[in-house]
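Translate structure to sequence.
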């Protein structure tokens, strides 16, 4: 996780940063889903789904930005 955070902050290209943020987001979604099951809190499942949707939107926005710049 620390390497992914370093790559997100210092990545030389937008692709490196986006990939590391996707990695961190996936880990966060997995952690939230595990916590939702262990703590029996269905609201955490909703939060995890929203986080996954936001990650997909961010990836699409970064891709669109890259396409318009190039």
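Result:
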């Amino acid at each position: 996780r620390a390497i992914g955070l370093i790559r997100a902050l210092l990545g030389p290209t937008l692709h490196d940063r986006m990939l590391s943020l996707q990695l961190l987001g996936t880990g966060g979604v997995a952690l939230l889903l595990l916590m939702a099951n262990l703590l029996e809190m269905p609201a955490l499942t909703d939060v995890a789904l929203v986080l996954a949707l936001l990650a997909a939107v961010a990836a699409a926005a970064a891709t669109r930005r890259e396409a318009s710049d190039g």
